[in-house]
Amino acid sequence: MLENTKVYVEVTSKFDTDGTMTPVSFVWEDGMVYNIDQIKKKERCVSQKSGETGMMYTVIVAGKECHLFYKFDKWFMEKK
Questions:
Q1: Per-residue pLDDT tens for 45-61?
Q2: 26 closest CA partner among 15, 42, 37, 41
Q3: DSSP character string of 13-75
Q4: What are phi and psi of 34, to 5 degrees?
Q5: Residue 2 and residue 15: Cα distance in Å, rounded?
Q6: Are the C-beta atoms of residues 79 and 73 closer than 8 Å to each other?
């Protein structure tokens, strides 16, 4: 696993009445808050850069597609 290829992020999520967790925003390493405009897909996947498995959310943020991973009790994103 390559720790320097990912960034742990703070995520604000909502929980539906059925217990479904949906991320709505995250704080990047520079402290900037980004709202998630759309969730295109949610699937169990391996991060291509870090090699870790987790739930991968393919999200749209400010018109750009990126991946947000949830593994146990931590959220992370891949560095560019």
A1: 877 667 777 899 999 99
A2: 37
A3: EEE-TT--EEEEEEE-TTS-EEE--EEEEEEEEE-TTT--EEEEEEEEETTEEEEEEEETTEE
A4: -120, 130
A5: 31
A6: no
Averaged pLDDT, 38-45: 94
Does the pLDDT at position 63 exceed 60? yes
- 28 φ/ψ sector (left φ>0, alpha ψ -120 to 50, else beta): beta
Q: Give the separation between CA 60 and CA 26, rounded to whole angstroms.
A: 12
Tokens encoding 31? 């402290």
Amino acid at 65: E
